[in-house]
User: What shape does this take?
Amino acid sequence: MKLDIIVNKYLLIWHLLYQSAVSEEIHNLKLKIWTSNKKEYSLVHTDKAEILNSLDDFIPDDDIIYNLVENSPLYKRIKIETNRYRNSILEIWDQSKKKYSKELTSILKFDVKKEYKICVVHPSLNVVETDFNSKIITIGKKITTRDKDNFLSYLMYKIIRYEMSKLKTDETEIVDVVTELAIINELYTRISKESKYDIGKKELRELKEKIYPYWLMYLGVPLEDFETYMVRDNIYFDKNAYKYEKILKTIDLYSFIGFIIRNKKTILKTKLIPVENIEML
Assistant: This one.
């Protein structure tokens, strides 16, 4: 996997204009430009898709608004801070990409060889967006050394979620759950060396717990080690209620999703057992 981490001035300006103002200075700049150029300001709103589709050669039909922002002292400071933020992402990715690539391939059981563009905007904007048409992720999210693995794991999740979007299925909830299990939970657990299985969308939790026994089979966890993983991840089930599907450890993530979809009725019938009713060895 190759990440091309860039700053695009038009996309940065667009987000400054249309995201919630992150400071009084930005709010005042937006208000000033809006007051004097209402028509032109409104038209710029439609530029975003074209910017993403033509990152290297986008030319606005009317650049008056872009010029007003770009020539402001505030933008010059924001550009410096955004470039500094980009350099931070480049540094942490350069330090971590080997271990992330290794663990990612181990979990997915296929290589992600594509190049993704990561368009960086100011971290105060709190933006994480994926454009599925152009394989571009726009990101502007505060990051510290302490939570760099949280940041990178989430970035990997956005990329793999894009990869999984190619699956032609109406079972999007299953796709979401398995992608969470793979990246937000398992990848982040391996990188951080502590269980992250408590992270994820609350509305997906019940389905995740029903899929979890099969997920352990997919990871190749031996039946005798199930209890260890249950305790680690705080997800409990009666292992004797499941047939150990040996085939699962030989297939990739796409095929695992297919298995879950095909066996959806059986999996959904599984009753979750309270922890106090599970007898652990």
